[in-house]
Every structure is written in C-alpha cells, then in structure tokens.
Design goal:
Elements lengths: L1 H7 L15 H10 L3 E7 L5 H8 L5 E5 L17 H8 L12 H19 L8 E5 L7 H10 L4 E6 L2 H15 L6 H12 L2 H4 L8 H26 L3 E5 H6 L1 H12 L8 H9 L3 H10 L1 H11 L2 H4 L2 H17 L9
Parallel strand pairs: 1-3, 1-4, 2-3, 4-5
Length: 340
C-alpha cells in the first residue's frame, strides 16, 4: 500500500478516529458537575421538531433550545477533538490529567453540558428538577446520530418525532422555494418559477411541485431516517427512547405533551402548564416568518400547507412515493395497505 502511494504520488486517507464512549464512572462524574438531566429531540426535516420544542418547553421545569447539532450535522461535537494533534494531547501517556485514558469523551461531555446548562441558567431553568434539551433534526446522519449521542450521553432521553413522509416532503419543498431558491437545481428552479406565476395547478395535483429526482430523494431520505433512527434508538436506549407522531400532537396536544413530560421526569399537573400549552399551541411563528420573508409567494404556499398530500401529489408522485416508502408508511400507521 505504501509503495503504491509513492508511485501514484498520494497517500491513503488516514483512518477515521474513533472517539471512545464515556464509562459509567465518567457519566457520574459529569453529572456531579452538571446535574441537570439531558434530553434530545431528533426527527426528519419538516417533521415537527420545532413545534415539539416550542410546546415541551412551556413547562416550568423544561428548557430546550434549537439546533446545536451536537450529534446530527458536521463538524459535530466530536469535531472539537477529531484531529491527530488533539488525540495526541488528550490521550498522551505523559499527560497525567487523563489518568491513562483518552480524555476526549470527557471533554466533549463537559462542553455540551456547559453549553446546555448555561442556556438553561439564562432562561431561569437551572434549579433542581429541571431538564434541558436540544432539538436538532437528524436527517443528515440518521441512525449514526443516535450512536454518536449514546457514546457521550448514555444517560440521556431521546424524543423522535415522525410525520407522514408525504406531507414532510411537501413542506420541505415549499421551504426550499422560500428559503433556498438560489440552491435549487435548474429543473427545480423552473418549477418554482412556474409555481409563482400560477400556483393553482400545483395545489390541486394537476402539476407536480417535484422533479422525479427530488421526490425520489425525499422518499428515500424519509424511509432511511425513520427506520435507522427508530431501530438504533430502540436497541441502544430502550426505555430512554420515546417516538412521537406529529399528527397525534396536533390532534391531542395535552395528552401527547403530558406523556412526554412524564417521560422526561417532570409533572404535567403543575399549575398553569395546561394554559401555557394552549397559548403556545395557537402560535405559528414559522408561518409568520415566511409571510414576512416571502410575501405573496408564502401566501400561495400557505394554501398548499393547509392541504394534504392527497390534494397536491400527482398520480405520478403517488406511484413513485408508494414504490419507495409504501411499506414504511404502513409500519408507522399512515396507511393500512398499498391501496392508496
């Protein structure tokens, strides 16, 4: 291998550094410094992670902020210690601070704990009994995000919110039309332009808002995220894992948030919690922000968001999505069969 590299003039890439997991003793040490219990919210893009965050933190003993991407997006928390130089320092035998063990997971846990508890302190939720969390969609790493989380937080709880992938794909598509039009491929940009001129055919299923490639990618990404995240979380976290349905939260917010708070270890019956939940549930800051940013375009898109995939998908869209994600939709209770 070395001689081949010399002949070709390039060396093989160095092996990826494997960060060791925290030991149970190190977990207890970390909690003695940073005592608040931690939780994380994962979910596919446009599946309700922001809504869940807003609702769960109305409880006076729960704090949650947005998108630290500690375990869900490069460079990740472990990027702090991933270089050879950092490994050499933190694992060096002459470094008596490390007691003969790579200090990397201890450093990562301390950094993440400090960031989260500092924010909880600023929000006035850092006293005994509080829990603090981060919401970061894990669409980019899927099940791998759970593995990275458990290495540093084997004691954490994980909420995973799932939404019908067809509606998530539509919401994500409209978000791209508003937020990232400059990043659309040429064919996608043409669809956006046509939609802006005349949205109605796209909102009644006559014309598709997707290219075949974009819808295929959306379906495949949703299936992979849902299956990998759920399977890995069940295996590694067991009772510390709670899957939720976006649609059930919309239909029964008090019931779903109550069982979520119980899962997080706080009492949903505290005075004022129900009223705070009702007030927050009536807000829609995402829609307000879209209207402010995109004006008439957002108004047209809002009509689509109020509809369902049944109104917006074309027959081609339905057939393609069914072929890729039909079985997963059945597994998660969104369909009873492939007859839709």
């Amino acid at each position: 291998m070395a001689s081949l590299a010399l002949l070709k003039g390039n060396a093989p890439p160095p092996p990826k550094r494997e960060i060791p997991a925290l030991t149970p003793q190190e977990v207890e040490e970390a909690k003695s410094f940073f005592p608040l219990d931690k939780f994380f919210i994962f979910g596919h893009a446009r599946s309700g992670t922001t809504l869940l965050t807003r609702l769960v933190r109305v409880h006076p003993l729960v704090h949650c902020n947005y998108q630290g991407h500690f375990f869900t997006r490069q460079p990740l928390l472990e990027g702090m210690v991933s270089s050879e130089e950092m490994e050499s320092w933190l694992a060096r035998r002459s470094n008596r601070w490390n007691r003969g063990r790579d200090l990397s997971p201890v450093v990562l846990r301390a950094a993440c704990d400090f960031i989260m508890e500092r924010d909880a302190r600023q929000a006035g939720k850092n006293f005994a009994g509080c829990v603090v969390g981060d919401k970061s969609p894990n669409s980019l790493l899927d099940g791998e995000a759970v593995i990275k989380l458990v290495k540093i937080y084997p004691d954490a709880r994980l909420l995973f919110i799932v939404r019908d992938g067809r509606d998530a794909a539509i919401s994500h598509r409209f978000q791209a039309f508003i937020d990232r039009p400059q990043h659309l491929a040429r064919a996608d940009a043409r669809i956006r332009e046509e939609f802006m001129r005349e949205p109605e055919p796209f909102l009644n299923g006559t014309k598709s808002i997707f290219t075949e490639k974009s819808l295929r990618q959306a379906a495949e990404g949703w299936v992979q995220n849902v299956i990998e995240t759920d399977n890995t979380a069940r295996q590694l976290l067991g009772e510390q894992y709670l899957p939720l349905h976006y649609e059930t939260i919309l239909a029964s917010p008090w019931e779903e948030l109550s069982r979520t708070w119980v899962f997080l270890g706080v009492d949903p019956a505290l005075k004022g919690v129900n009223e705070a939940l009702e007030a927050e549930f009536q807000n829609n800051p995402d829609a307000d922000w879209q209207r402010e940013k995109a004006g008439e375009t957002a108004e047209a898109i809002q009509k689509g968001q109020r509809g369902t995939w049944r109104e917006i998908f074309t027959p081609r869209d339905q057939m393609l999505y069914k072929k890729i994600a039909g079985r997963t939709l059945i597994d998660w209770g969104y369909e009873q069969s492939l007859d839709w």
